[in-house]
Design brief:
Structural class: mainly alpha
Shape: globular
Strand content: under 5%
Region (Disordered): 140-160
Membrane topology: Multi-pass membrane protein
Radius of gyration: 20 Å
InterPro entries: MCP, MCP_dom_sf, MCP_transmembrane, Mito_Solute_Carrier
Number of helices: 12
Keywords: Membrane, Mitochondrion, Mitochondrion inner membrane, Repeat, Transmembrane, Transmembrane helix, Transport
Number of strands: 2
Distance between the termini: 18 Å
Family: Belongs to the mitochondrial carrier (TC 2.A.29) family.
């Protein structure tokens, strides 16, 4: 059975399982990406390995999973929305949902990405605050900053407590309303839509190169590598947009770090103050995060975990 023949329920299960396994495997690298993108220059971390080592030493192994609970909680509905929306737009835009048409696949992917941000934007908003908290502690510790600057919510969290997603979400809703959770929505769309435009047709073409007429699909290894390559290329390409999104969504700034009024203001300040190379911060991390995520997703679909689970209830 090809992936297009999967029932929507099986697709949702596969998407959820792939998201949960993927997030668990690569979350520390994603944390390093966020911290590298947010720091100005190299005053704290020299690179991904240095960031992970310092995080593990200062915060312990679990410190590398700060914010993972938010992702693990919301990744299943995020994938569910994306998969359901992609199916809907494929049927709407194509006469036959299985007929290959790269332009329509690009549009379907874009539509799915636009629907997905309903969950993606608040999920990343909360995740980024939790991931970046440790960086600010390291920065303040080295600079002997006053403890009053160690709050990670919009106003007044107790300085002796680590921030929690619930506390941050409540503070945002109380002080800014629902729009507080959707800060950076435009930047999220600006990142996710180009990513979909690049990834979906690239994966389709790469995967089609390994199509086997006897089995009716590409081999597991070929699909896995196609997902990794397409995901890596798309991830690195949109890294500048991801840097802008990360900077805009970060609420708590370190001493001397700028606040941004919007996408254009953020891009201008980074370009002038840190140079164009700053827009590629975390590119390697993004490739190392996205490649396994999409490879794992292809593996889950190939194995058919969703179908196996459904058969248990028949």
């Amino acid at each position: 059975m090809s992936s297009q023949d999967l029932s929507i329920t099986a697709k949702l299960i596969n998407g959820g399982v792939a998201g949960l396994v993927g997030v668990t495997c690569v979350f520390p690298i994603d944390l390093a990406k966020t911290r590298l993108q947010n720091q100005h220059g190299k005053d704290i971390y020299k690179g991904m390995i240095d960031c992970l080592v310092k995080t593990a030493r200062a915060e312990g192994f679990l410190g590398m999973y700060r914010g993972a609970a938010v992702n693990l909680t919301l990744v299943t509905p995020e994938k569910a929305i994306k998969l359901a929306a992609n199916d809907f737009f494929r049927q709407l835009l194509m006469e036959d949902g299985m007929q290959r048409n790269l332009k329509m696949e690009m549009l379907a992917g874009c539509g799915a990405g636009m629907c997905q941000v309903v969950v993606t934007c608040p999920m990343e908003m909360l995740k980024i605050q939790l991931q970046d908290a440790g960086r600010l502690v390291h920065r303040q510790g080295s600079a002997s900053a006053p403890s009053s600057s160690r709050s990670y919510t919009t106003r007044s969290a107790p300085t002796h407590k680590r921030p929690s997603a619930t506390l941050i979400a409540w503070e945002l809703l109380r002080t800014r309303g629902l729009s507080g959770l959707y800060k950076g929505l435009g930047a999220t769309l600006l990142r996710d839509i180009p990513f979909s435009i690049i990834y979906f047709p690239l994966f389709a073409n790469l995967n089609n190169l390994g199509f086997n007429e006897r089995t009716g699909k590409a081999s597991f290894a070929h699909s896995f590598m196609s997902g990794c390559v397409a995901g890596s290329i798309a991830a690195v390409t949109v890294t500048p947009l991801d840097v802008l999104k990360t900077r805009i969504q970060t609420l708590k700034k370190g001493l001397g770090e700028d606040s941004y009024s919007g996408i254009t203001d953020c891009a201008r300040k980074i370009w002038i103050q840190e140079g164009p190379s700053a827009l590629m911060k975390g590119a390697g991390c993004r490739a190392l995060v996205i490649a396994p995520l999409f490879g794992i997703a292809q593996g889950v679909y190939f194995i058919g975990i969703g179908e196996r689970i459904l058969k248990c209830f028949e």
